[in-house]
Structures are given as C-alpha cells and as structure tokens.
Amino acid sequence: MDISLKKIPKEQRPILENLFPYYVYDMTEFMKWPPNENGQYTFTPSTLDFYWQKSDHTPYFISAGNELAGFVLVRRYADTQRYDIEQFFVLRKFKRNGIGKKALEQVVKLHPGSWQIRVLLENTGALQFWKSAVTNIMGSQFTLTKENDDNLIMYFLKFEA
Questions:
Q1: Phi, psi for 109 (deg, rounded to 5)
Q2: Which of 20, 84, 94, 103 is the most buried (most CB within 10 A)?
C-alpha cells in the first residue's frame, strides 16, 4: 500500500479538526478524560493555530492509497532545534499495517536533524510502536530516557537523522 504525507493547507484545517476528537478519544485510555455533557470528546481548536502561524510547526495528513489514514503534527520543541512529534494519529482500521512506521520515515526525511518523540509512561503500546519505528530508521542509534515534560514524566526517544 502506498503511504504518503501531505502538508495540510489552511483550507483543509477543518478536516484535521474533525479527526482530532478520535485522537482525543484514543488518549482517554491513558489520560482518563471524560466526555463532555453531550457525550463527545472535544478539544480546543485554537491549540492548532501555531501550525498555520509558525514556520517551525508543520501539520501533515497521512494517506494510505487514496484514503485519509491519520495525521502527524511536527514542531520544533520549546526553545531547541530538536524536532518533536506533538501528535501522531493513525485511524484504527490502518493500525498494525506498517503505515505509522512508513509515515515516521517520511517525516524524518522531510525534516533531517535532531529528533525526539515523547510517550506517556502508561502507554506501553505506543512505546513499543515508537521503539520499533525508530529502530526501523536508526537501528540502535537512539536514546530512551524518562524526563519531565510540562510537569508530566514521559519517555523521550531521541535520535539524529
């Protein structure tokens, strides 16, 4: 299956906003967020504004063939020159097919340099995925640490690509 990334133009932002509650729902397993009073998992759309305002933030759609398969939001982390995957989401029907690994490989090629990927401690499935995906690109040339990220201890995978 052909996997591709497409930078999200501002006029397609509503599509990303439509996908985002599915990402939020997936994260509730670890973050324990409740649905709102209407039974919906929501987010604050303004949190995405930087992706069309700052040159060091880039949003991508992930496509599998001709189908929308997810998204990846890439940014420079805080005041560093390190790239960071702020959010990464693959729709359930596309999981465990290598799509996420191929998407990461393409993102890293588009943004060569220092990288990090942050993973919640509780999200052991994501940690396994990211270790495998990074190993696929870098072999054993990465570090795995636990660090504080905005008052939350997380795993950090770091590498140079």
A1: -65, -35
A2: 103
